[in-house]
Write a structure and sequence with these properties.
It is built from 21 helices and 37 strands. A hairpin with a 4-residue loop joins strand 22 and strand 23. The protein has three domains: 176 residues, Glutaconate Coenzyme A-transferase, CATH 3.40.1080.10; 223 residues, Acetyl-CoA hydrolase/transferase C-terminal domain (Glutaconate Coenzyme A-transferase); 187 residues, Gcn5-related N-acetyltransferase (GNAT) (Aminopeptidase), CATH 3.40.630. It is elongated and about 105 Å long. The C terminus is likely disordered. The chain has 645 residues and is α/β, with parallel strands linked by helices. Helix 15 packs antiparallel against helix 16 and helix 20 crosses helix 21. The strands form ten sheets. The chain has an eight-stranded mixed β-sheet, with helices on both faces. A seven-stranded parallel β-sheet has the order 4-3-2-1-5-7-9.
């Protein structure tokens, strides 16, 4: 459509359009990479414009002016989110921050809580029907222009045309200012990619194929996306699209096929990135852009099954409170979309949230897992809203956990140098037992290679991993779920109490090398339960004493045999040459497990009813084949028939 013919009265130069803004006006500015840079610069350069209040979510261009005293005298800048470019100005008190959920901002405009006189926006040229596109910035921009008394639009041919609720007819715009310029480009860069990769590694474990994801603001969430390249059929419902998504589109990882809301579509509000990204979303029907009022509404978010919210934080305290927008008294970023999506994911069928953050700040000098939030820090996310917290040291699951459990979960994923201190503070506050042992101060990333899983004949999947101090409650629940006969077979006497003191005694010897415990977990009713435990401890002469217990409803499914094979691999890595075991004579099932894997094991009777077994790793067979490698599928010498145990 030719603007000169369609609406010549609206087509004006920049100065004419901006002359309509009166002193004292409340002016909304389009967000992020969609901000009308030319209109902003011209407005600032017009010295006749005085006492103007500016509202914006993410701001870039104003960063060029906030150190100018004259600018600060003439304009008052109010931001809903503090971008990295505006952080210094925020620390110096040169801008005003409005803390609020993104989903609520459009309502503030509509109800007049934040009344707007003028909206400065940027749009694409109109199509043949007179519709322009808000392109990369629909978010709160749509509501800003709909509720302003005067709308001035910079018409930029470089603005992508996006599908969804981004279309604005020229009749809704008062003045059109044609001006072509590149859009703002931004490419987040995380300072410590090794830390980000480790965090992404753990987040990857929580994301199943077919899940729908939300990725929050910040450098870290973008880096995490790189670790999801092996997933299938992911969907996207998120406030912001960045370049980090592009590889997942190109690899067909993101298909949106399994989404229950807007299937086949990426639902989003805004886009911030490179020119390559802007060309990718241009006229791409896969993307549906809508306002923050819709995209960030928790009740809308919850319509997605298996919605996983992934966002970052500045610090998390030992009870699970999360700070995202301030460093003490200094405002750093914003509440943004985190709370909206945390609550939406909690209502989603199969959904949950993940808070991801590095374990330290200031080059390792400060822990981000803290006894209490910094003085002045805001609680953006309450302790009742958090599901998982992830650092480069692991995953803490907080949902439904007590303060004691939360302390142990979070101390376990803190940087090793701060773990003992965190435990000491927790003891002083009576959060945990006075005799609680701190988590290992080692970097336990090596335990990740010990994790594995198997699928049972009934279709359930058993996940195996090392036992951790934070498993104490689950460990005790497992023990008390066992029948008396099973307990007797494991401990050789009818132990009635499995107390905190008993568990602590076991932790005191676990070092994950000479002493190891592996657990098998099955997801039951949305949560994982321990259904098996295998342990070994340094015996003597290069041997480790091994023992297993499997819950009765999972016996005779091959679980003990699988654990035995896993334990052997770990023991060999730690320079053991074989296992020893004491088994009650009537425990024929366990005897069969050992005999099946070690057909030449040496057995002798002790104390009339106990059998001592010595097993050499060089004698091991698996599924009827000689074990010549610890890697499944590399053994080829048939020795004996396999039997399930």
């Amino acid at each position: 459509m030719e603007l000169e013919k369609a609406c010549p009265e609206k087509l004006v130069d920049t100065n004419t359009a901006l002359s309509k803004i009166k002193n004292g006006s409340r002016v909304f500015i389009g967000s992020g990479c969609g901000e009308p840079q030319h209109l902003i610069r011209t407005m600032v350069e017009d010295l006749s414009m005085q006492d103007t209040m500016l509202y914006q979510m993410l701001s870039w261009t104003f960063a060029d002016y906030v150190d100018d005293r004259e600018f600060m005298k003439r304009f008052s800048l109010k931001l809903f989110f503090i971008s990295a470019h505006m952080r210094k100005a925020a620390f110096e008190g040169k801008i005003d921050y409005i803390p609020t959920y993104l989903s609520q901002i459009p309502r503030y405009f509509a109800k007049g809580h934040i009344a707007l006189d003028v909206a400065l926006i940027q749009v694409s040229p109109p199509d043949e029907f007179g519709y322009c596109s808000l392109g990369v910035s629909v978010d709160i921009t749509l509501a800003g222009m709909q509720n302003a008394k005067l709308v001035i639009a910079q018409v930029n041919p470089r603005m992508p045309r996006t599908w969804g609720d981004s279309m604005v007819h020229i009749n809704e715009i008062d003045y059109l200012v044609p001006f072509e310029e590149p859009l703002v480009e931004t490419r987040p860069h995380f300072k410590n990619p090794q830390v980000a990769e480790r965090i992404g590694y753990y987040v990857n474990q929580l994301v199943d194929d077919g899940a729908t994801l939300q990725i929050g603001f910040g450098h870290l969430p973008n880096t995490i996306l790189q670790q999801l390249s092996g997933k299938r059929d992911l969907g996207i419902h998120t406030q912001l699209i960045t370049d980090a998504f592009l590889p997942l589109f190109e690899q067909n990882v993101i298909t949106n096929r399994k989404k229950t809301l807007h299937p086949g579509k990426v639902l989003t509000s805004m886009c911030m990135g490179s020119e390559k990204l802007y060309r990718f979303i241009h006229d791409n029907p896969m993307f549906y852009f809508s306002s923050s009022e819709y995209v960030n509404d928790p009740t809308v978010i919850a319509l997605n099954d298996n919605l996983i919210s992934i966002s970052s934080a500045l610090e998390v305290d030992l009870t699970g409170q999360v700070c995202t927008d301030s460093m003490g008294h200094l405002f750093y970023s914003g509440i943004g979309d985190q709370v909206d999506f945390l609550r939406g994911s909690a209502m989603s069928k199969g959904g949950f949230s993940v808070i991801a953050l590095p374990s330290t700040a200031q080059n390792g000098k400060v822990s981000r897992i803290v006894p209490h939030l910094s003085q002045g820090a805001g609680v953006a996310t309450t302790r009742g809203d958090v599901n998982f917290v992830v650092t480069e040291y692991g995953i803490a699951e907080l949902s439904g956990k007590s303060i004691y459990q939360r302390v142990m979960e979070l101390a376990q994923i803190a940087h090793p140098q701060f773990r003992e201190e965190l435990i000491d503070v927790a003891k002083s506050r009576h959060y945990i037992f006075a005799d609680q042992l701190p988590p290992s101060q080692d970097d336990l990333i090596f335990l990740e290679r010990y994790k594995n899983q198997m699928t049972l004949k009934n279709g359930k999947t058993v996940e195996y991993r090392p036992l951790l101090p934070s498993d104490e409650f689950a460990y005790r629940n497992f023990y008390y779920s066992l029948q008396e006969k099973t307990i007797y077979y494991r401990f050789f006497y009818k132990m009635k109490v499995f107390s905190h003191e008993v568990v602590q005694k076991q932790w005191s010897s676990v070092d994950y090398r000479k002493n190891m415990s592996m657990i098998g977990l099955v997801r039951i009713g949305g949560y994982q339960e321990i259904i098996a435990i295998g342990s070994y401890a340094d015996d003597s002469n290069g041997l480790a004493e091994v023992a297993f217990v499997v819950r009765e409803d999972f016996q005779s499914m091959g679980i003990a045999s699988h654990l035995l094979a896993s334990m052997q691999q770990i023991a060999k890595e730690n320079e053991f040459t074989g296992f020893s075991a004491m088994v009650l004579r009537e425990n024929t099932a366990m005897l069969q497990v050992f005999k099946k894997r070690y057909p030449h094991a040496k057995a002798s009777i002790r104390n009339g009813n106990e059998i001592s077994i010595l097993m050499d790793f060089s004698d091991a067979v698996e599924w009827g084949r000689k074990v010549t490698s610890d890697k499944p599928g590399e053994d080829d010498v048939c020795v004996c028939p396999a039997s399930d145990a």
